[in-house]
Amino acid sequence: MTQVRELRADTPVADRARLAPGRARLVEAALTAKRSRVTWGRRSPLLIAAVFVAVTAVVITATLLADGHRAGREGTPATAPGLDLKGMNARELLEFAARTVEKQPPLAEPRADQWIYTKETQEGNDAEFELENWLRYDGAERASYPRPGADDPGELETTELNLEGLGDEYDDRSPREMYRFLATLPADGEGTLKALREENALVDDRSLTQEGNDYTEISVLLDAYVQPPKGLAGLYRALATMKGAKLVDHLVQDEAGQYAVAVRFPEPGREGEKHADEWLLDPVTFEIVGERVIEDGEIVGGNAYVVKAVVNEAGRRP
Predict the structure, then answer these.
(1) Cα separation, 231 vs 222, whole angstroms
(2) How far apart are CA 310 and CA 58, in angstroms?
(3) b/e map of 105-121 (b: 16 or more CB within 10 Å)?
């Protein structure tokens, strides 16, 4: 909490109207604890107070994300407040997620010379490691340490990218290009699919169906570092039209040890090989916090974001 206060020391104290939605979710979570798969025990006043403190911290962190400054995942709950995952399907969950994110206030777009800081945990080939990266919002440069996770990570190395100068020759786009395209998307699924097909930012794979190519483009945009709420809502509703989606009926733990809602999609063109993507959503904000690769029912790789933040220079952490 001290770090949160220092991060946005100039932010005015939230009034009752702004805190009301979060407080309502907290009350519902406390009162429905008896139905939860987690055994809370008798609902004593002390327990309810503890729930309020824990989830208030989550709400404050989510507010910082909505302002475009930081997304931290400390304190995510082991249950999704107000949701019974066993009683939902993937389409219903994605519609709930869309309604949740589109209620967030518009993001403040970063400046061209600001940097997107990400700290993520990755898993694959029986190894787990943590990465830190800085990417300029205009895609001009990327920075990282040569030996991430080591006691001596080395000197910060900066590489020129010029993503916005590549034109249509490559699929890579800057965070600014991704944000501005997402900001043009409608909030409905069919409208989003139409916009994606008209823009055709990625060259279609002729071996895939139209739905397979739609899913590929949606996947790229779901990985965007900065996402306007309305655009993300449109992506969720477009994703809900994809065939074969399955909702995991309980919260899972990602590579960072945080709880998440998991929605699984067969990988386009490889359904017969039992390959699938599993998108991980924060159970409070319903924003994308990671992705896992599934093969024959087993997790073979993935990543989970611990922190996303907008900072003023490479090497700075929030």
Answers:
(1) 10
(2) 19
(3) eebebbeeebbbbbbbb
Q: How many CB atoms lie within 10 A of CB 182?
A: 21
Mean pLDDT of 266-295: 87
| CA distances to 85, 200, 225, 297 from 247, in Å | 8, 28, 24, 14
- CA 219, CA 216: separation in Å to the nearest integer? 5
List the structure tokens of 78: 């082991």
Residue 114 structure tokens: 């600001």
CA–CA distance, 123 with 131 (Å, rounded to integer): 11
Query: Which residue do the tokens 């952490």 mark?
Result: 317
Buried b (16+ CB within 10 A) or exposed e, 238-249: bbbbbeebebbe
Closest CA to 230 of 281, 176, 179: 179
Question: pLDDT of 19-54, one tens digit each?
Answer: 444 443 443 343 333 232 222 222 233 332 333 333
Q: In residues, how long is the chain? A: 318
User: In this structure, which amino acid lies at residue 129?
Assistant: F
User: Which residue, chain included where needed, has tokens 């944000």?
Assistant: 179
How far apart CA 45 and CA 53 sit, in angstroms, is 12
| Region of residue 242 (left: phi > 0; alpha: psi -120 to 50; beta: else) | beta
pLDDT per residue over 180-229, tens digit each?
Answer: 999 999 999 999 999 999 988 778 888 899 999 999 999 999 999 999 99
> Residue 107: its pLDDT value, please?
84
What average pLDDT score do residues 62-75 get?
46
CB 4 within 8 A of CB 61: yes
b/e burial code for range 284-301 (CB count within 10 A of at least 16 → b): bbbbbbbbbbbeeeeeee
Q: Decide: 175 and 220 in contact? Cβ < 8 Å.
A: no
User: Could you count the other beta carbons within 10 Å of the beta carbon of residue 254?
Assistant: 27
| Model pTM score | 0.74
